[in-house]
Amino acid sequence: MSGTACSTHCPLPQSTPDPSQRTVDASTICAKLLTTVEGRKEVLLLSIDKPLTIGRNPVACSYVVQDTTVSAIHCKIYAIRSSQGGIMVSCQDLSSNGLLLNGMRIRKTCVLIRDGDFLQIGSRKFRCKHTVKNEDQRLHFFDPTPQPDSPSRTKVIGQYILTNHCLGSGSFATVHLGLDTTYRSSKQVACKIIKKKKDANMDKMMKEVRILKGLNHPGINRVFDVHNDETFLYIFLQLCTGGDLFSYIVHHREPESRLNEGETKYIMYQLLLGLKYLHEKHISHRDVKPENVLLYSPGRYPRIQLADFGLARRKSYQETFNVCGTVSYLPPEGILALENKDMTYIGMPADCWSAGLMLYIMLAGHHPFDYGDPAAEAGDAEEATVEDLKSWEEKLSLDYIRNDRKVRRRIVDDAVELSAGIWEHLNDAQTLCLGLLAFYAEERWTIQDAIHSQWIQSDIDELAEAYAQRVSADGV
User: Fold this and answer.
1) How far apart are CA 17 and CA 21, in angstroms?
2) Ordered structural domains, the chain, with CATH
3) Which of 10, 27, 402, 405 is least surrounded, with the fewest CB atoms within 10 Å of its CB?
4) What was the pLDDT predicted at 396?
5) pLDDT tens column, 295-352
6) Does residue 203 carry a catalytic annotation?
7) Facing residues of 284 across strands?
8) Residue from 451, 449, 444, 434 nearest 274 by CA
9) Which of 191, 55, 167, 44 is nearest to 114 (CA)?
10) Could you name the domain of life of the organism this protein comes from (predicted)?
């Protein structure tokens, strides 16, 4: 596969760490693992983008546990930037025997570790302490006042236990970490919680649920169950532990927060498969953007899932007057319909335009209709301290998705510019990008066209094999 990080095929996330990661800059520490060895306290420091690797192998691991039940490389622990401005701690089990999280057996999967959780690897027990916390941790799920230092609280909804650990929040909903207790040992899930309004139409609120329950594809965030009471609607979803694609791109180590060609192709291939599945069912997502693409687990060359179907629409081949989505990801016909109430647009070509924008952003590191350089303005990600995280996210979000008139006018009036410095050796990627970003919807490439592009087809066997292996390894 083309790209600097690929050799003979598109690799899955690597389990072997770089031993040089043992040196940690104190200003970037965001969590600690505390343990006791022969009466002596030891502290493992977890830093942003510098995972800890625990196991028996002293060369490959940043922390060694000499225990016959511990694998050479037992697990890898990551600090992931949260969309809420804090961090998530994610643990990937790579062992033969698994590990225990608060007494719960974990094997061959990724889980989130909350502040105060206990992790047991072999006979060694660790307590996790987050030094950076999301501001939205509350004493109770729906208390109006955040209380970051409050103890963990839970709430039982059917077979699920909800925690007060907030994974994300928006205008209409929050997402919390939950546990499904029907398994032999509890399984982590995400729970999207929507507060009902007195004048809200329940059928409209259930729209996302009905669409999601009818979908079954590894590239689409799966819904497990739905509950509701007098106040809230609870949607229980597959948990993704690697954060979202937006955070992954803007904090990437490559120059100017862009991905290399090989990784971009692997992510784009997965996105196209998910959209192909939707469009064959005549469903349009209508809000395709990096923030709505989740990383199933941490690491390079991530497996992704398309999420947030609150704006999705059936019969997506039909014209509609109801323009929705993030303005800076709308196609020209969507902007024109937004400004002229007698005009319509169609959902499927709009998804294709958004996919083209995502391809551009991953390779170029910025939005094609936002001419600023957000990565340069924000500074070097590797040198920033933990305290900088929230301000970064706010600034970069504004740079990427601001909905002002200037961006609208550029989408309608300006042609896509492909900088020679970035695109000159990416001829096939250029062709795909310009095909998806065709101004007129009827001339725009479909998702099927994109999959059959030379850029994808040149590595199609490799892409398909790598993706199938990854999905099989994840067990879903």
Assistant:
1) 8
2) 19-130 (2.60.200.20), 154-237 (3.30.200.20), 245-474 (1.10.510.10)
3) 405
4) 47
5) 999 989 999 999 988 888 887 777 776 777 788 899 999 999 888 888 888 889 999 9
6) no
7) 313
8) 451
9) 167
10) Eukaryota
